Amino acid sequence: MRNKKKADARDGASLEELHREKPRRLEIILTSIFFSLLMIALIVNLAVYMKRDSATAINNNYNSSRQEIIARQNIRGRILSADGDVLAETKEENGKEIRVYPYQNLFAHVVGYAVKGKAGIENTESMNLLLSHESLGNKVQNELASVKNYGDDVYTTLDVDLQQAAYDALGVYNGAIIVSQPQTGRILAMVSKPDFDPNTIMNIWDDIVADNSSSVLLNRATQGLYPPGSTFKIVTALEYYRENGGNVSDYSFNCNGKFNYEGSTIRCFHGSAHGREDFTKSFAKSCNSSFANIGTSLELGSFQNTCSELLFGQPIDTAIAYKQSQFNLSESDSTDMLLQTAIGQGGTVITPLLLNMITCAVANGGECMSPYVVDRIQSRSGGVVKQNEPQKAADMMTPQEAEFLQGLMEAVVTEGTGTKLKNDLYTAAGKTGSAEFSSDKSDSHAWFTGYAPATDPQICVTIVVESAGSGGEYAAPIARRLMDEFFTKNVSF
Amino acid sequence: MAHVISDLSKYVILFFMAVYTLECFLILLRPDDREGDGIYARQIICMFMVHFLGFAAICLETGEASYIIFYGFQELLLFATIALFRVIYPEADRLVVNNMCMFLVISFVILTRISFSKSLRQFVIVSVSMVAALFIPAFVKKLRFLPALTWVYGAVGVAALAVVFILGSVTHGSNISYTVAGVTFQPSEFVKILFVFYVAGMMAKATDFMQVLVSALCAALHVLILVLSRDLGSAVIFFVVYSGMIFIATHNYLYLILSAAAGTGASLLGYRLFSHVRVRVTAWLDPWANIDNAGYQVTQSLFAIGTGGWFGMGIYHGDPSSIPYVEKDSIFSAVAEEMGVLFAILLILVCLSCFLMFMKLASRIEEPFYRYIAIGLSITYIFQVFLTIGGGTRLIPLTGVTLPLVSYGGSSVLSTIIMFSIIQGLYGIRSKERIEEDELYDEEEDDYEE
After folding, report:
1. Residue B209, phi then psi, degrees to nearest 5
2. Hey, CA dihedral for A143, A146, A152, A155, is it positive or negative?
3. Counting C-beta atoms within 10 Å of the first and last residue's C-beta, which end of chain A has fewer, N or C?
């Protein structure tokens, strides 16, 4: 019996052996490894998203449903100045949470508002303000006491005194001011006028939106596109230096108050004749005739490249909402357009933010840092959640080129249009501008952009005063007030 | 107070899931012998805790005691499944049973949280599927004519897909399902299995060039119908499964290169020819610019995952319903949102352990037909996991496939349970092979004695 069974098994086995084989494992192992790698790719991709991108991604108005869920659990955190003054906080009034801005209009644009689509830091840091990094123990305690958790605090780079000085200095004019630190890109003050009181934003909203002409909500410092006027001569000078290198010292021009070229005419400001001048004097005196002359010698393709390197028409690596500045000059443009562009008129438009960045790059040996207003995110109990470190935005120029421009900008203050900044306390450097913005040419926007001290730059100031007049008369004195304010407070230089 | 408990439960759930995942890989690394039942018991305890804590959170958050009854029925189903497989199929792999149940636990928790009625419906389908599943391993083991039906698998598969393409109803822009007597079927889910049987049958007969060419034409026909039906996810799965099976069956690396080239060519052609392919790719490349239309699903999915964070917002503390098709294509994002990204990563690892277990089995089956089936089903499973999770996390474009056993959907869950049961049947085949080897060996010894 047993034998028969065995024999059956043998028959069956030998029959099946025809179809059987020892599996070759190599391909199976390779296939397993391949799909395992796909799974690892899933995990790595997920981890990278969480670590690098998720914080920015989830701070989006399309994610409002989840933000509201978190807002029900946590109290929106505070926004503070670099010194810890409260710029925005949420208080409870009659059982209702309200957002309070103690400085009212002062920080209107840079801090922004947390309703109606949000703006400013309230917008870019919305999610960080809502999330709470209090300890688990605290959270449990709050939960048991039915109290909301405190959302994290946003510590900015802003200085209340400097902001106040800038705000006051701009006075009743419309315009914008940015004060920053060239080595880091930290924004110390940012003012835009006309302004509004964010405490009352809900009440004034309909009026503001209805009024198309004033654009009160626009942060002119980062989103206002202005003709750069003579401040653009920084760019023209850089391009001339790039094309002519060491021969710049040979440059000479005789200014009689106007410049004629192929039927087009460029006049100097108020028609003043600057006489015989070299390159430095042309820049210091902001001689339109001389710079129009320079413009005729420039090579268009190279000029366009230089402007791209200075981030015209390019994205800027910053969390702050901004508009792209535009350099518009092409082969098909008229001679007049070319001459106008060389002196900062024509089709070129720039934001005070980008002009400030270019000035910072000059002061900083060519390296432009990304501008930022948020220093760190901190939990209410003091633990640092995220610390922002200075980051390079672009290498705008070589150290030699920066040094060349530094010399020009110092001359503006010592012997040119920026003499209002001459003083015994510190040496400043900069460039004035008076940008014509309409065809009747009666008024111009007053520009100043510069830094101090010239030898070891600590702050960089960019000012535009709308419809005020000349930059030397109306913008340079504001720069003086801001630098005075900064250096009387920071005597470390 | 209830809030605190449900809030803390997510950390405890994560802990048990972590232990469970660790055990999965420990089992995977063990030699074949079946000692140490403790490890499986520990897994079952972890599974029970995840299920219990998940439903505790649901009950506390909703204040609805009726969920306890639902929970009780689920427990009954899970333990019946584990016990019956153990009794009827002692040779079945216990890790595969455990993983199947773990996926169902996660599915029950997250689906109940999203929609009670859908969860209830899913539970009924799972219960029915489980009854069917108990017969399948026996069929696979006993029905020795299965390898002979090669052309039946291919023909039925193509016919089923073609019928849907012609008569099917359109869901989410793809006509991939049809409704018979009130029940909606999605045949591509079942054709996946038939297709694996077809290719396995072809390759078991011969692996010469003609055989590969003929099978390639049939595979291309499957893929073509699916692309025309706009079921891109299934089309890609069929293609990858076919390439993998041919590569392993022929040991020919040239076929691998050929199929990579064919895949690239077909993708480019598809991109040029079909606007729905272009829409998906555009939405993938820059979902933020298309957030109002094509990019909406993936951005909502990314919001859910990102806002949930590593530990999740907690069950009922997120907003998974804002993700389109959350219970089907985007279930993974819902899990990540409320149970945490860490939990979601562990879920990926459990899926991986499942796949590796299948491949380990495949490398031990000596009969080519059954070995190829094991390989085909493994690839079908893991690649589908890759497509759905990769799509929701923006590693690859969205293809609209489900996460097997976790997503809502009758066809999907039934076909996956059938797949897992066939795998269990293959464990039966494998153990039969082993017994026969042993007997041959015994006999030789006996002969020697005589």
Report:
1. -60, -45
2. negative
3. N
The complex's ipTM works out to 0.94
CB contact (8 A) between residue B443 and residue A10: yes
CB–CB contact A50 B310 (8 Å) = yes
Instruction: Enter the pTM of the model.
Output: 0.82
Beta-strand pair A187-193/A175-180? antiparallel
Helices (H), A18-159: 25-48, 54-58, 64-73, 108-111, 120-124, 126-130, 136-144
CA distance B2 to chain A (A): 9
Please indicate whether, in this complex, the C-beta atoms of A23 and B440 are within 8 angstroms of each other: no
What residues of chain A lie within 8 A of the CB of B395, using their CB? 41-42, 45
Cβ pair A42:B390 closer than 8 A = yes
Tell me A226's DSSP state.
Answer: B
Question: Which residues share a beta bridge with B175?
Answer: B170
Q: Do A69 and B251 touch (CB under 8 A)?
A: no
Predicted confidence at residue A72, as pLDDT, reads 84
A4 touches chain B (CB under 8 A): no
List the domain boundaries for chain A: 222-372+390-489
**A214-237 CB burial, b ≥16 within 10 A, e <16:** eebbbbbbbbbbbbbbbbbbbbbb
| Residue-wise pLDDT tens digits, A306-356 | 999 999 999 999 999 999 999 999 888 888 899 999 999 888 999 999 999
Contacts of A24 in chain B (CB under 8 A): 251
In a mutagenesis test of the A interface, which of B7, B307, B333, B359 is the best target, namely the one with the most A β-carbons within 10 Å? B307
Higher pLDDT, A161 or B167: A161
Each residue of A231-279: pLDDT tens digit?
999 999 999 999 998 788 899 999 998 999 988 889 888 888 899 999 9
Residues 43 through 82 of chain A touching chain B, CB cutoff 8 Å: 43, 45-47, 49-50, 53-55, 57-58, 60, 62-63, 65-66, 69-70, 73
Do the chains contact at B318 and A53, CB–CB below 8 Å?
A: no
**CA proximity to A432, closest of A450, A453, A457, A408:** A450
Task: State whether A6 and B317 contact (CB < 8 Å).
Answer: no
Cα of A444 to nearest chain B Cα, Å = 38
When pLDDT is averaged across residues A16-39 and rounded to a whole number, the result is 81
- What's the whole-number mean pLDDT along residues B97-113? 96
Helix then strand count (H, E) for chain A reads 20, 19
A222-372+390-489: CATH topology is Beta-lactamase (3.40.710)
Average of per-residue pLDDT across B250-266? 92
CA distance A387 to chain B (A): 19
Inter-residue contact B24 to B100 (CB < 8 Å): no
What's the Cα-to-Cα distance from B126 to each of A458, A478, B104, B117, B123, rounded to whole Å? 70, 75, 9, 14, 5
B211 CB neighbour count, 10 Å cutoff: 16
pLDDT for the residue A13? 43
